[in-house]
């Protein structure tokens, strides 16, 4: 909703963005307080789409991603980020929040299957494991094999 041409849109975006960041920080604070072995976030949009920086769309996610990266670095325990949107299974262990940044070793990003790739994602959760989260593709027999995503490093 970061659309200046739409009346009220930027105000709604600004309020929602602040609420999202506050909620995410509160979730990390609760995880630290409870000594949780890890934390997972699930969301729809692909805030990490590599071409956003070229198209200008990335700006709508920048403040949230900056705060999320900061919290992940401070948390130092496993963080699982699961999203959809581009609809190609993708698994990034040691996720980079920005193409030019160093990977954050405790963060795993999973993009789920979707339109045209009707499969699933299985996440094994073992709080006793140092990894905590083990995501993997769950291929549905009889459905067409999934398409491979473009590499973020091929552009």
List keywords for this structure.
single chain; 155 residues; alpha/beta; four-stranded mixed beta sheet; two-stranded antiparallel ribbon; globular
Textual characterization of the structure:
With 155 residues, the chain is of the alpha/beta class. The chain is built from 3 helices and 6 strands. The protein is globular. The two termini are 27 Å apart.
Layout of helices and strands:
Elements: H1 9-33, E1 39-43, H2 52-55, H3 59-75, E2 79-83, E3 90-93, E4 107-111, E5 120-125, E6 133-138
Parallel strand pairs: 1-2, 2-4
Antiparallel strand pairs: 3-4, 5-6
Strand order of the largest sheet: 1-2-4-3
User: Which class of secondary structure composition applies to the elements?
Assistant: alpha/beta
Sheet-strand content, in percent, reads 15-25%
The count of strands amounts to: 6
Described by the principal axes of the CA atoms, the overall outline is globular
Q: What's the Cα radius of gyration?
A: 17 Å
Characterize the largest beta sheet: strand count, sense, and whether it forms a barrel: 4 strands, mixed
Number of helices: 3
| Low-pLDDT segments | none
Gap between N and C termini: 27 Å
What oligomeric state do the depicted chains represent?
single chain
Helix content: 25-40%
- Helix/strand order: HEHHEEEEE
